[in-house]
Request: fold
Amino acid sequence: MLKPTPIKRNPALVRFSKDHHFALLLIWKVRQGLRFDIEPQRINNYIIFFFQNYLEAHFKEEEEFLFVHLDSNSGSRIIAGQDHAALKEIVAEIKSYPKNKTISNEFITRLEKHIRFEERKLFNELQIMLDKPELDTIAEKMEALHPHQQEDNWKDTFWLKV
Reply:
């Protein structure tokens, strides 16, 4: 059986992919919490924290630096934009119903699907479509915004079995 070839990511998009990896860790942590039957409010508090401190800015950067290069009628741009809107709505629902376990699962399922879409389709389209100066400009803007790797400083490590 052939192993899938890793995607060669343009340096301009590496920061976005690292953010996605960081978000995939959120998904893993939430799944662990759900598996360990952790109180939903603890899990949802973490989702809200992560969204407000990391994902919200990440979505804004994608919209400002990447989506603008796609035609407004582009299927990929429409899907990615709809995903961002849906995830924001789910977080608003989590804030309203912090004890609801189903919403936590809905959020991570939608977020994982969104990340896979961007990594496998949207970013590949952009890498083909954008020229070197455009990609270099994106890389410079992202480096200026994020000179250091993100750290998750959430204290309630509910995902660890103790």
The mean pLDDT is 94. Residues 11-145 form one domain. DSSP finds five helices and no strands in the chain.
